[in-house]
């Protein structure tokens, strides 16, 4: 008999009048807001301008959603294109199914476009966003809890996840809550990147590379625990191989970047020409005001000195007259 377990929600959607509020979509939206908010704070701390992160995210987020969905549909095509399945379901992103690998890859393309339009180096922007992305993933994983999906092997541990749905081949019971494991891991990754960035002044994309490598290290063993259908290569799930490959690439980038471009970028965002001219004009005005003030102070000092000399002369004249 199970003494304790994590209950699953009976429904993954709440009806707010005519508007359905789906738990999965809600978690994704909240995660995006957290990533942009934290990324903006970190960008400003690095010398960037407020609002730049949000402007570039307008490109990165849609690309990321499309890429994440494409990766999921391609790697799990049997869920949508096998016999008895409706291919239209491939477009129902709100029902779950986003591959982080595709989301990051396509999101990077969107971010590159946004950065190029603003004249900003993509690695610097990615460094600012890195921990926020990890926290966004931590929040987004709770969408799987709402959908009762992506759980691990059966277990009777006190923190086991109680699955009640019998749809799509599910077997009701208690399982490892891999969504929770990954959520906690992502939180740890986010704080690790923040600490390492402050301690070692990571730049030129190395904070982002650290996030990628750390996430992959956790995703590998968590993915190995899952029991949902997946393609296997040489006995391992496809996502495990993907995690290994991306981990190696991130570590190689981190090492090479540290050798070729040590330290952190001094300037992450150029000042627009119009504002640069305005700032220069303000500087000239300030300099002119300072020069005028210095001239006035010098004149006042001179007048005071002349006044003092005149007083001394008058005093000396009066003394001489008295003596005579």
Strand content: 5-15%
* SS field, number of helical segments: 10
Class computed from helices, strands and strand pairing: mainly alpha
Radius of gyration over all CA atoms, rounded: 32 Å
Average pLDDT reading: 84
Helix content: 55-70%
Largest sheet: 2 strands, antiparallel
Q: Estimate the global geometry from the Cα principal axes.
A: globular
Strand order of the largest sheet: 1-2
State the total count of DSSP E strands: 6
Distance between the termini: 125 Å
N to C succession of SSEs: EEHHHHHHEEHHEEHH
Taking pLDDT < 50 over at least 5 consecutive residues as the criterion, the unreliable ranges are 276-281, 317-324
Could you characterize the architecture of this molecule?
By secondary structure, the chain is mainly alpha-helical. The chain is 65% helix and 6% strand. The chain contains ten helices and six strands, in the order E-E-H-H-H-H-H-H-E-E-H-H-E-E-H-H. The protein has helices at residues 23-45, 52-75, 78-81, 100-118, 122-140, 142-147, 178-200, 206-225, 238-260, 273-323; strands spanning 13-16, 19-22, 161-163, 173-175, 232-233, 236-237. A hairpin with a 2-residue loop joins strand 5 (232-233) and strand 6 (236-237). The radius of gyration is 32 Å and the shape is globular. The protein starts with 12 loop residues before the first strand and ends with a helix. Residues 287-317 have a biased composition (Basic and acidic residues).
């Amino acid at each position: 008999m199970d003494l304790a377990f994590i209950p699953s929600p009976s429904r993954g959607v709440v009806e707010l009048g005519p508007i359905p509020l789906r738990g999965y979509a809600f978690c994704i939206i909240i995660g995006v807001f957290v990533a942009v908010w934290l990324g903006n704070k970190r960008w400003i701390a690095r010398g960037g301008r407020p609002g730049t992160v949000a402007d570039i995210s307008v490109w990165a987020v849609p690309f990321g959603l499309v890429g994440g969905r494409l990766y999921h549909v391609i790697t799990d095509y049997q869920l949508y294109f096998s016999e008895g399945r409706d291919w239209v379901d491939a477009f129902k992103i709100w029902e779950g199914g986003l591959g982080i690998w595709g989301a990051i890859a396509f999101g990077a393309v969107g971010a590159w476009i946004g950065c190029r339009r603003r004249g900003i180096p993509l690695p610097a922007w990615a460094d600012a966003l890195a921990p926020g992305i990890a926290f966004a993933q931590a929040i987004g994983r709770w969408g799987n809890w709402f959908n009762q999906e992506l759980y691990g092997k059966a277990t009777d541990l006190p923190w086991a996840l109680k699955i009640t749905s019998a749809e799509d081949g599910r077997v009701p019971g208690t399982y490892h809550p891999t969504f929770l494991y990954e959520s906690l891991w992502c939180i740890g990754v986010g704080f690790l990147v923040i600490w390492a960035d402050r301690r070692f002044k990571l730049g030129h994309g190395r904070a982002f590379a650290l996030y990628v490598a750390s996430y992959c290290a956790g995703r590998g063993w968590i993915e190995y625990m899952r029991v949902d259908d997946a393609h296997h290569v040489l006995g391992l799930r496809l996502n495990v191989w993907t995690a290994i490959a991306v981990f190696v690439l991130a570590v190689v980038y981190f090492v090479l970047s540290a050798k070729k471009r040590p330290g952190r970028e001094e300037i992450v965002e150029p000042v627009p020409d119009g504002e640069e001219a305005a700032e220069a004009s303000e500087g000239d005005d300030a300099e002119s005001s300072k020069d005028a003030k210095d001239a006035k102070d010098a004149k006042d000092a001179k007048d005071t000195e002349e006044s003092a000399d005149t007083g001394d002369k008058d005093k000396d004249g009066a003394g001489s007259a008295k003596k005579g």
